[in-house]
Amino acid sequence: MKISLNQNSSSKSFKWKIPLLVCLILAFSSVMVFAFYQKFTDDIPVLMYHSVKEKKTSEVVLTKKTFDKQLKYLKTNGFKTLTLDELYDYIKNGKEIPRKSVVLTFDDGYKDNYEIVYPLLKQYGFKATIFVQTNKIDKDKHFLTTEQIKELAKSGIEIGSHTVSHQDLATLSYEDQYKELADSKATLEKIIDKPVKYLAYPYGSCNEDSKKISKELGYLGAIGILDKYTNKESDGFEISRRAVIEDMDNFLGKVEKNNYYMTKYKVRKLFRIIKSKL
Ligand SMILES: [Zn+2]
C-alpha cells in the first residue's frame, strides 16, 4: 500500500513536470528563433555617420579603427554600396538592387570626411553621400572647405544639402524653411557645378512644409532619421536612417538585419548599466 501511494504521488508530480518542460522548451526555442532570426527582406540599411577621427572625442565621433573595421566587414561579406540615385530608383521604380545593399551617409560636412573617410572609401571602392551644412564652409576649421567639397564631388562622392544653419526645420516658419533649403542648394551647386538632388533634415526633423518646399525646389528626395530600414513603401521625402555607433555588434545587427547581434549588444549594454549602478 505504501509503495502504491509513492508511485501515485511520483506519477502526479511527473504529470506536472511535462507541461512545465514543454513550456520551457517552447520559451527557449522562441528566444533562439528571435535571436537568430535574420530578415531576408528587401529592407535596406541606410546608415548615418557624422565624424570619423583617430580618437573618440564626442558622441557623434566614430574612431577610424572602427570605421575601417566596418568597411572591411562590408567588403569581405559581399555588401554593395548604393548611391542615393540607385536607392530612389529602387524605391520609386522597383529597379533591382543587390540583396546585400547598404547606403552610407555622412552628416554636417566635417573636415575628417575628406581627411579620413574619403581615402578609406576609395580604398574599399565604396560610394557615399555627404550632407553639408553650408554656413560652415571655409568659416570653421573643423568643417569642409570649398576646395575639398569640389574634389569630393569630382571623385564621385555625392554632395547633399544639410541646410544653411542646421536649425530644426519643423520649428521654422515657411519662409525661413524655404531660405534654409534654397540657399544651401544654391551654394553647393555653385561649388560642385552640378545639381544638388538630395537633402538631410537636421536632427531628422521635418514637417509637411519641409517636404513641400523640398519638392518645389527640385530636390528628388530627403532623408530623416527614424531608425528604421528603408524599402519600397518608404516616404521618399523622409527616408529613414540608422545611426552607426562605436560598437560592432550594433553595426552588424543593423547591416545584417539580424537580431542575434542586436540582442548581444543590448545585453552587454544592460550589464554595463547595472555595473555602473553598483
Ligand atoms: Zn546634422
From TrEMBL:
Domain of life of the organism encoding this protein: Bacteria
Domain NodB homology: 100-278
InterPro entries, alphabetized: NODB_dom, Polysacch_Deacetylase
Protein name: Polysaccharide deacetylase family protein
